[in-house]
Structures are given as structure tokens and as C-alpha cells.
């Protein structure tokens, strides 16, 4: 059963929005925070999209007008390593730590898009940074593949890499369309897809190596 809608923002609500809130709650009540964190994590694993539905229900009830794609993309840049723990590798070898750095760097740059998209000169520089970060991430993935045991494990990571490249190309196409038509939300969604695909690479490497 999949809840939520069919966009990458669904998978990012828990790590990017909910967990930082629970981290703040932890300063006041550790037990309550940890109980909620465990319950919501388990619920999201059982019913993907549940936390998205929860948040959207609150927004509708409060009659709040908010662009969730823009908001989650912006919040991605503020999320801490502890909030994004499932997307970080624990292996200490340089190749794995480099992949941690490159994936975090790409997501951080993408999170700046909402603040920079209206300034053409700044945004063009950001696009160059994104292109460079994508290349560095792919290079880092290639370095890690050699550590993955078994043919099936390597194939799984290679498949994730192909998916990432596909969405990178879609992101490039979306940018071209943006400069013609000015649809910023399409850029936000495409950037979120790239973040989601980056996370999928990290999860797959983690599952095959740890």
C-alpha cells in the first residue's frame, strides 16, 4: 500500500521535515521525541507516504497555502546528518566517505534553487555547480562499486546509477524549459527527483556493503 502522491516529496517528508522537528522536541522531552521518531519511522516503512498524508492533512485543516515542493527542497539544505542517517554510509574506507561527501554536496546545492532561481546570473552559476556535483557523485559511485561483493550487488548499484543519470538528463531538459516558460515548480520537482535518486543510490550501496 502506497499513500501520498507519486512525487519524490513523499519520501522526503520524514527525514527533511519531521525528524528536525523531533530533534528540537528532544531538547525538552527525550522520551517523547524518541517514541514519536520510532513510531513514525515504523509507520512510514509499513505505509510509505503516511507522513506526507499526515502533514498535508494538517496543512489543509489549517488552510495554509504552501508549495510543498519548494519548501521541502529548501529544508533539505538544513537537515542534519542525524536526520538523514539512512542515507549515510558507515564504512570508513575513503571511497565510502567520499561518496557521503559528494551526495551531501549535491543535495545541498540543489536545496539552494528556491532562493536563487529568480536571480538569473546566480542561478546560471548554480546550474554549473550542480553539473559538476553530478559528475563528482558518479565518479564516487564508480569508486565504490569495486568494494561491492557479488555480481548481483554490483548490478543493483549500476542500475541505480542508470536511473540517476536518467533523472539528471530530465533535470537538464526541465531547466531548458524553465528558461523558455518560467515554470519554477517544475524545476523544484525535478530537483527533488534528483535528491530522491541520490538517496536511492546511498540506500542500495548501504544494503549491499554494510
UniProtKB/TrEMBL annotation:
Gene3D superfamilies per the UniProt record, alphabetical: 1.10.12.70, Nucleotidyltransferases domain 2
Keyword Cell membrane applies: yes
Programmed cell death protein 10 dimerisation domain ranges (all copies): 8-65
Membrane topology according to the record: Peripheral membrane protein
Gene Ontology molecular function, alphabetical: protein kinase binding
Predominant location: membrane
Stored Pfam families: PDC10_C, PDCD10_N
Record's subcellular location: Cell membrane; Cytoplasm; Golgi apparatus membrane
Cross-referenced InterPro entries: PDC10_dimerisation_sf, PDCD10, PDCD10_N
One Gene Ontology term from the biological process aspect of the record: regulation of Golgi organization
Keyword annotations from UniProtKB, A to Z: Angiogenesis, Apoptosis, Cell membrane, Cytoplasm, Golgi apparatus, Membrane
TM segment ranges: none
One GO term describing the cellular component: FAR/SIN/STRIPAK complex
PANTHER family: PROGRAMMED CELL DEATH PROTEIN 10, TF-1 CELL APOPTOSIS RELATED PROTEIN-15
Family to which this protein belongs: Belongs to the PDCD10 family.
Protein name listed in UniProt: Putative programmed cell death protein
Amino acid at each position: 500500500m502506497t499513500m501520498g502522491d507519486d512525487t519524490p516529496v513523499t519520501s522526503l517528508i520524514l527525514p527533511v521535515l519531521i525528524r528536525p522537528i523531533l530533534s528540537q522536541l528532544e531538547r525538552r522531552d527525550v522520551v517523547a521525541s524518541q517514541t514519536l521518531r520510532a513510531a513514525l519511522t515504523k509507520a512510514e516503512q509499513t505505509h510509505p507516504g503516511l507522513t506526507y498524508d499526515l502533514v498535508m492533512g494538517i496543512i489543509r485543516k489549517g488552510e495554509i497555502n504552501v508549495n510543498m515542493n519548494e519548501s521541502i527542497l529548501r529544508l533539505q539544505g538544513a537537515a542534519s546528518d542525524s536526520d538523514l542517517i539512512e542515507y549515510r554510509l558507515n564504512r570508513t574506507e575513503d571511497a565510502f566517505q567520499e561518496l557521503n561527501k559528494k551526495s551531501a554536496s549535491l543535495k545541498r546545492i540543489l536545496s539552494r534553487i528556491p532562493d536563487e532561481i529568480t536571480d538569473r546570473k546566480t542561478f546560471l552559476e548554480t546550474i554549473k555547480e550542480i553539473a559538476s556535483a553530478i559528475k563528482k557523485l558518479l565518479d564516487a559511485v564508480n569508486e565504490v562499486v569495486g568494494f561491492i561483493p557479488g555480481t548481483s550487488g554490483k548490478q543493483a548499484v549500476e542500475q541505480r546509477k542508470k536511473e540517476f543519470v536518467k533523472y539528471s538528463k530530465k533535470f537538464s531538459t526541465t531547466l531548458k524549459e524553465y528558461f523558455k516558460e518560467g515554470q519554477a515548480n517544475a524545476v523544484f520537482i525535478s530537483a527533488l527527483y534528483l535528491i530522491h535518486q541520490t538517496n536511492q543510490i546511498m540506500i542500495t550501496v548501504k544494503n549491499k556493503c554494510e
